[in-house]
Fold this protein.
Amino acid sequence: MLTAKELQSAGMAVILIEQSNTGRESSWAGGGIVSPLYPWRYDASITALAEWSQDYYPRLADILIEEGSIDPEYTRNGLLILEPTDTDAAIHWSKQFKQSLHVIDRQSALECEPTMQTDATEAVWMAEVAQIRNPRLTKSLYQSISRNITIHQQTKATELLINNGRVHGMKTENGSFHADNVVICAGAWAGELLQGLASPPSIEPVLGQMIIFRHHPGSISRIVLHNDRYIIPRRDGRVLVGSTLEYRGFDKITTEQAKQELKQFALTLFPALEKADIEQHWAGLRPGSPNGIPYIGSIPEIAGLFINAGHFRNGVVLGPASSRLMADIMLERPPILPPSPYSLTAPREK
């Protein structure tokens, strides 16, 4: 939807084809933290996309509201990372990229989040990190783009229409759609649509299970991360807890074991959640890619074919920058960032 919005805003006629309902896969299922988890552990190419998006997100939220779409609830409440084990790397990264980051002791961590209980002796505090309420963001984006863009939901794409080395559209279960250019933004399913290429992108589904508590507004104020799992307080008091990391294909079945593990993680840090009800337990499929570096750019062997996919755990935070860069590449504008690290042939393995 962000890519469609960028292209339509630049004057292109856009058709969006969606196999289910817009924004109901990993974009809806994730946490909405506007930062990679442990951001210093990622390649510089991911940091570059994240920085651009982080700067743009407040404006994006305002644009959507000004257009009459629902408030996506952009909220800057900071990220508290308990016991990261590699604080030297974190400090080096923060200095290199001029990011707000402080290593603090246990007492300072408890002052930062007074309702939390922890034995952690060290933490990293990133006060500028924000969240976007991703289910509201996807709904808001749909409201925005549906005014000017034709959207075909419940329409599964099945085959690219290619002739003489050029794409001419897409075949779907509901008929064919013709276009001068095609952008594959199919998340975990992107790899399937491009399997016929000589060197297809390496994208695979990676399951993540989440739970959400219905709690009291203001009871938890910070995003808290510990051992790859996180707690995200929403404005209305709901508390989202995630996430598992499971490789089992396109299976999205939730498990009682994961639910209990996530619940116990949350109760250990915030015992008051014992009195709160678990409102929902769900799963989503992230588009896993080597080293988490997305594919953004043209498909060299087929003219008019592009890809914007493979964002793994960082689709929400990287989305605005990825979509603007995709539009820059397609329209041959000066790009916001050097596009080479995201090309189909760029090295991605550590």
Q: What stands out?
A: The mean pLDDT is 97. The longest helix spans residues 44-66. The chain has two domains: 1-78+129-197+290-350, 204-288. The CA atoms of residues 1 and 333 lie 20 Å apart.
